[in-house]
Amino acid sequence: MIRALLDRVLPERAPKRREISAASHKISKNHMSRNAVYVCERLQEQGFEAYIVGGAVRDALLGVIPKDFDVATNARPEQIKHLFRRAFIIGRRFRLVHVIFGDETIEVSTFRANKKDEVEADATGRIVSDNVYGSQSEDAIRRDFTINALYYDPNRELIVDYVGGMKDVAARTMRVIGKADLRYREDPVRMLRAIRLAVKLKCEIARTTAAPIKKNAALIRNVPAARLFDEIQKLLLSGYANETLAALRSHGLAEGLLPLLDLIYEQPAGQRFIELALDGTDRRVREDKPVSPAFLFACLLWHEVVKRWQAIEARGEHRIPALLLAMEQALDEQRETITLPQRFAGVTREIWLMQPRFEQRTSRAALRLLEQARFRAAYDFLLLRAAAGEIEQELADWWTEFIESDPTIRQQLIDQRQRAQARNSKNKQRERTRGYNSQAVGIRDAREEREHVEALQDDESDAQSHDDDVAIATAGETTGTAERRKRRRGGRGRAKKRAEEFASSLDEAASSPPTASPAKEDHRE
Ligand code: ATP
Ligand code: MG
Questions:
Q1: In a mutational test of the pocket of ligand 1, which residue from 70, 141, 196 has the highest number of ligand atoms less than 8 Å from its CB?
Q2: Of 13, 42, 173, 261, which shows the fewest CB atoms inside 10 Å?
């Protein structure tokens, strides 16, 4: 009580600055990007303070190769921009400078402060605007974790630590700076970062940092969907996606973040499918091979598409229009939490839409499929479905052989397939003729049964929209239930329209001549 009172009346004490000299830490300039070192030197020459900060210092200290470099300085954005040939001020809310060197971008930001009376927060305490400049020590304490708040001066080769980051690096501990509960309310993404970074860096999360996560997990829903996409993309492409998602689930953070993921994990086939997809991705990332977010999201949302596809078909819609509609509905639902950018969503759709086409193995259909620009991605997707036991392995093997063969063998494979199909349909015909008499007897019963099934389907579709409404109602967000229902209904109309537009754009694409030999193309490159 007295402490709280003192905190209010006394000015905040500046954190103590500790300098760690080159002899006492094990990083050197060689661990850093030459461009980042140059940016610091240039700023220092002009009399500014400049340090490499954040993830790069942390990674270097933990023996991980840093992948991007941030510089913090007391120079203002205009002053920074002025010193470099290719420098751009970006961001309206946080103005920072991107200094470009070929394909490397160094992000340079001015020291900022998290001053209680100068930041703007929403009703839950989430900071929506904090572009207040400050001192280096203020900049340090507004960062998220102690190990992320270390400053490296490449010129003097020393590390500056205000928050005990060096101690936590030595103990491999992730610890929030300040009170975790408050810091998560200010920015709920910090909870995701704690888990993602702990898995990637093989760190323990301090008890006081981990404990408030469950309680605050629902705040993730207040984060703008586009920002969440960036964070989720980092997570999925970290090389530890499977492990990180498992950790998120155990901290109660996956729920509501990827709502579809929860459903998927409830079905064993779905779980197997996702795990296989993420294993493949993790392997590729660790081998430093490119990975496509569109492919990954196609995997993550696939079982939701399949579920809807089956339900729409059961209501009497034809197979392909049903798939198109299911795709749009699944993407629409996902859009409410994590927005998949349009450039990815287009590829994701193409991968899905090619799946039923793999079943057509006539000469014309197979060869045309092979010519599609996204064939390779769609084929990899097919392999995953087979590995997860969702489709016959025979189908995947047939396509593998087809791709790898020369034109003569390809034709033989198609001929074999057509003969097998002809045999099958003859057998079916025979069975039908054999059963004709008994069917004729039961024809009246069959009609009655059909009418009964139709009535049930009508009930089911009513129940389905009811279930959706319940799901919306329990989502418990700020918008009223009735309004959300209306939005969802509108959303369905939009989904249908988009499905039609997408179908016609594909027809156009199909009628234009192919440009490359896609069987050789790697979709992830
Ligand atoms: P990664 O290895 O994923 O790049 P990182 O910690 O470098 O991890 P960045 O997004 O590059 O992540 O952020 C750079 C630095 O900015 C962080 O190290 C941290 O100091 C600060 N930072 C990033 N996100 C937040 C946040 N949500 N709240 C406070 N500080 C943050
Ligand atoms: Mg970084």
A1: 70
A2: 13
Tell how far the Cα of 175 is from the centroid of ligand 1, in angstroms.
Answer: 14
68 catalytically annotated:
yes
Mean pLDDT of 458-478: 29
Residue 80, CA distances (Å) to 49, 50, 85, 132 in order: 12, 11, 10, 17
* Ligand 1 pocket check for 148: Cβ under 6 Å: yes
Rounded distance, CA 277 to CA 303, Å?
13
> Which of 27-36, 177-186, 491-500 shows the lowest per-residue confidence on average (mean pLDDT)?
491-500
Contact of 32 with 69, CB cutoff 8 Å: yes
DSSP classification of residue 176: B
Tell me the ligand closest to 140's alpha carbon. 1
Residue 471 is predicted with a pLDDT of: 27
Specify which of 269-273, 319-323, 478-482 reaches the highest per-range mean pLDDT.
319-323
pLDDT digits (tens, 9 = 90+) for 349-401: 999 999 999 998 887 888 899 999 899 999 999 999 999 999 999 999 999 99
Q: Decide whether any atom of ligand 1 lies within 6 Å of the 237 Cβ.
A: no
Is the shortest distance between the CB of 234 and ligand 1 below 6 Å? yes
Q: What is the pLDDT of residue 290?
A: 85
CB 184 within 8 A of CB 208: no
Q: Is 146 exposed, middle or buried (0-12, 13-18, 19+ CB in 10 A)?
A: buried
Q: Is the CB of 332 under 6 A from ligand 1?
A: no
108 phi, psi to nearest 5 deg = -115, 120
Structure token pair of residue 418? 């057509």
What secondary structure letter does DSSP report for 207? H
**CATH classification of 15-181 is 1.10.3660.10, yes or no?**
no
Q: Ligand 1 pocket test: pick from 144, 162, 219, 235 the residue with the most ligand atoms within 8 Å of its Cβ.
A: 144
- The first and second tokens of residue 115, run together, are 């001053």
- Higher confidence at residue 420 or residue 129? 420
> Strand 150-153 and strand 158-161: pairing?
antiparallel
At 9-62, the pLDDT tens digits run 545 567 899 999 999 998 998 889 999 999 999 999 999 999 999 999 999 999
- Give the model's pLDDT for residue 497: 62
The dihedral sign for the CA sequence 323, 277, 270, 259? negative
Q: Is the CB of 66 under 6 A from ligand 1?
A: no
Q: How far is CA 135 from CA 93, 111, 511, in A?
A: 19, 6, 61
Is the Cβ–Cβ distance between 227 and 93 less than 8 Å?
no
